[in-house]
């Protein structure tokens, strides 16, 4: 079994580290955030992710998983160092990616290294970054470093499952150290997971292309939902009808308020930058972000049309999707920001796990509730913004007793319409004629 050090213990680093320990490797997860590491050492998981706590505890107990703030503790005992730090957008207008965290890691590795090592880049990085890291390490270090691009495709909310059951593993390298990297993923290879060996640039581009394609699918189905509303078609049936075609596939065909999260927006912006740099004539890639921003505006305006000023709007769901506490670029928050800017409403919110993160963004501009029905009390409109189970199961009778006006706008198409119609609610639902 291999000794692995993971640099960056966020959504990707922590899940990758824990899951690689679960497959039998000895893993140390490093982060420069002292609080995070102290919490993890005390077996407290700093993010919300199904199944992560149990696997973490199990692997700490098996002595396969450790946490530290010091790279020097494990670097020179490791076969592999995996970089999983953040790569946010540095400049929204140009899509330039902030590679500072990556560069800091590379400098630190070069400074502390006293043996040959494999450097795996798990972070999503612009094409050419891994080649540049290889050149820098060749220059800065006296030891042989082999840089491999190994983008991660896990989804927040189902991250542990996704890591343990990948559709494919992409490995971009110059061909050196294939044996050790195959050993890293031996459990997956034995189970028949498809391994795609490519060069580093292709591996990097595969990640951007995957996210841009999925974001485009979301944008496409949202436009089909708008068409359905106009012509009286049923978007659920339409999604089923086109998604049953294997060439299209059924995933990412749920209409909604637009896409968000820490990856799609930033990765599409980075791809747009690449389009500009390479002077490619692109209409499709460039339109993905524009359409998504217009989506937030359209939904916000729809909400404003359904509720008079000075009334109360209850927003149910703050995270960008169910199953995570991540609120980065959440459509729900973009919509709230629009409502605050363009209207005068009292906004009450509820989210099962995202509230604390949201407070950092919206502070006291909205009210926060731990009880869904309390958030809806006195509301003239309830907006279902995230597809949480608890939102799927809302009791129309209980809601009717606390709301001022019986209006519900289901942005995710998850409520039991019959149940609400029976209780005299006016329902607005994406992809259907109003009250249909
Ligand atoms: P994150 O912000 O949750 O975590 C990054 C961590 O790195 C933080 O804990 C931070 O403290 C730490 N860090 C920063 N600099 C450091 C340093 N020099 N040394 C040690 N630790 C350092 O980020 P994330 O969401 O896990 O994303 C990481 C990368 O994975 C990004 O490139 C992202 O695009 C990519 N990715 C993310 C997802 C996802 O769903 N979040 C999925 C696939 C790929």
Draw up the topology in text.
Elements: E1 3-7, H1 11-22, E2 26-30, H2 34-41, H3 52-61, E3 65-68, E4 80-83, E5 89-91, E6 96-97, H4 100-112, E7 117-121, H5 129-140, E8 145-149, H6 159-164, E9 168-172, H7 178-184, H8 186-190, E10 194-198, H9 200-231, H10 235-243, H11 264-277, H12 284-305, E11 312-316, H13 331-342, E12 346-350, H14 355-362, E13 367-369, H15 372-376, E14 381-384, H16 389-392, H17 396-402, E15 407-410, H18 417-422, E16 426-429
Helix pairs in contact: 1-3, 4-5, 9-11, 9-12, 11-12, 12-13
This protein binds nicotinamide-adenine-dinucleotide.
The site of nicotinamide-adenine-dinucleotide has 26 residues, from helix 1 and helix 4.
CATH class of the largest domain: Alpha Beta
Strand order of the largest sheet: 3-2-1-4-7-8
The pLDDT mean sits at 96
Relative strand content? 15-25%
CATH architecture of the largest domain: 3-Layer(aba) Sandwich
Number of domains: 2
Which structural class best describes the helix and strand composition?
Answer: alpha/beta
Determine Rg (CA atoms, Å). 23 Å
> What is the straight-line distance between the termini?
58 Å
Small ligands present? nicotinamide-adenine-dinucleotide
Q: Report the sheet with the most strands, covering strand number, pairing sense and barrel closure.
A: 6 strands, parallel
Helix content: 40-55%
